[in-house]
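Exam revision sheet. Question 4 asks you to relate a sequence to its structure. Input first:
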Amino acid sequence: MTWWMWLILIAAMLVLLGIGMVFVVTHAIAALHTVSDVGAGVSKRLSMMSGAQEDARDEGNPPIFTVPLCEAADRYTDARTQVELRKRHRVDRHTRTWAQWKNFNV
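Answer key, structure tokens:
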């Protein structure tokens, strides 16, 4: 082969190498944005879950055995109501998810 053919091949190789690098960098940046969005969503949900526990601990209520029985019964009723609401919400989420998946690949 003549010298100018080698020059054309090397130039083509360098151009393709540059295009490949641009492709990799743009896709890596897009992937980082996606991972960042997923991480933010997970962080938000985890903070919501831990916030509910902190709220329950920070109420400042005295221990249950030191209060009158009627107040203890009211606190138990309120706590039980919250448990039932959480269970109902969980069942509703489960039902909605399965309804969505039922029609997903139709």
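Marking note for examiners. Residues 1-39 form one domain.
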